[in-house]
Write a structure and sequence with these properties.
This protein is an alpha+beta fold and 419 residues long. The chain is 58% helix and 8% strand. It contains ten helices and six strands.
């Protein structure tokens, strides 16, 4: 690895012969014997280092122990870009195009893609292991075949593919779990089913936020042609090499011609045209960048259709996944509305029953008042008749029944409840 040539394996650890060997490296290059960088204070062993997986163009992978400073020098990245890859911090999904690298942070896949290698943050997560094995397999399989996409786009494509597949699989698992619970809740409203739906709804909201972040990042990238142009790392490297070649020819070839040709000798028009043609060919592949730098991609002449079509495909996939989540959320909302309707109906029935009971209590109270009055010990002429009290009870009871039916007809007239 050319960019990490300052790093060496510790003594006694041989280089792996297989394409997927593991190499543990130290920044000082000499184990614990001292720092390999003059003027740099030695830190504790392994302090600030992280485990990374390097995958080259041939599909060979190595595990490296690197610190931030080494990666920043090798990939020309600022420290804030590496902070996006730190698993200790929670950042939204990010795809950044830089001068010499693409910084990718999609779910568990956190890597730095250059024109000829991928530096993947090592993790035991299934997506990281699958990314490493699948990418190495693809590179080794297509080693001798011509590829339509440059190396950096193949690495980015696999990261998007695995991220979209992982999120879609989680959505499908959530659907299989949510729909039966909602159907059961619609038929049987109890605390257990409500608690299950509450837990699943929280999971749904968290998953929706993750999918939405990936969706927004791809959409933001597609809307910015300049950011997409910055991701053509292979083409920018070729332009850089062409510029260096032209500059070398300009410095070496032209002075040599000046030394060979005498001042008094006539200048050959054929020789002059040939040199001009060489210079023109040397600079023919160099186009002015959008920032005015020969190292950057051109905003006018750059063809970004290749990357745009790649992003559109995965944007459609992640948009479909997001639509599934929205449909699932709408189904949950509809179920909640149905439950609220059912609960409201039960509450109305309870109110109706309470109203009937209140009316019955009222008329019964009237009957009790009348009987209570005649049960008092006072002198009245009505008590001189033996059956007078019985007729009072009968007439009072019929009056109470009539009054109760009057209440019922009144409730029906006011449409308080159907009878």
């Amino acid at each position: 690895m050319e960019g990490f040539q300052g790093l060496h394996a510790p003594a006694g650890v041989p280089e792996p012969a297989s394409s997927h060997g593991n190499v543990r490296l130290n920044l000082d290059g000499y184990g614990n014997r001292g720092s390999g960088f003059p003027g740099l204070k030695k830190r504790g062993h392994g302090h600030g280092n992280r485990s990374w997986i390097k995958i080259d163009q041939d599909g060979n992978s190595k595990i490296l122990e690197l610190d931030k400073a080494t990666i920043m020098r090798h990939c020309s990245l600022p420290s804030r870009d590496l902070r996006l890859l730190d698993p200790l911090f929670i950042y939204p999904s990010t795809i950044l195009g830089r001068e010499k690298a693409i910084v990718v942070s999609l779910e568990q896949i956190r890597c730095i893609i250059t024109a000829d290698e991928v530096i993947l943050m090592n993790s035991l997560d299934g997506c990281v292991v699958q990314y490493m094995s699948e990418f190495c397999k693809r590179l080794q399989k297509n080693r001798e075949q011509a590829e339509d996409l440059p190396f950096e786009f193949r690495a980015l494509e696999l990261a998007l593919d695995l991220t979209c597949m992982s999120l879609d699989a989680q959505v499908k698992d959530l659907e299989l779990e949510v729909y039966p619970v909602l159907d059961e809740l619609a038929t049987s409203i109890n605390t257990h089913n409500l608690e299950r739906v509450r837990r699943l709804k929280g999971h749904l909201l968290a998953l929706t936020q993750r999918v939405q972040r990936v969706h927004d990042e791809i959409e933001h990238l597609m809307d910015d042609d300049g950011d997409m142009a910055e991701m053509y790392l292979t083409e920018k490297r070729e332009r850089s090499e062409a510029y260096a070649l032209g500059d070398m020819y300009f410095q070496n070839d032209i002075p040599s011609e000046g030394r060979v040709v005498s001042k008094s000798a006539p200048v050959s028009p054929v020789r002059s045209i040939s040199g001009a043609q060489k210079l023109q060919r040397a600079f023919s592949n160099i186009s002015p960048s959008k920032h005015g730098s020969l190292m950057s991609s051109s905003s006018n002449g750059e063809n970004i259709d290749q990357l745009e079509m790649l992003l559109e495909a995965y944007f459609a996939a992640i948009d479909n996944t997001l639509s599934k989540l929205f449909s699932l959320k709408e189904y949950i909302d509809d179920t909640e509305d149905l439950i609220n309707i059912k609960l409201g109906n039960v509450q109305n029935q309870l109110i109706q029953f309470e109203l009937l009971l209140t009316a019955a209590t009222f008329v019964t109270t009237i009957f009790a008042v009348v009987t209570g009055i005649f049960g008092m010990n006072f002198v009245a002429s009505i008590f001189d008749y033996p059956y007078a009290f019985n007729w009072v009870l009968i007439i009072t009871g019929l009056a109470c029944v009539f009054l109760y039916f009057c209440f019922l007809f009144y409730f029906r007239y006011k449409k308080v409840f159907p009878l």
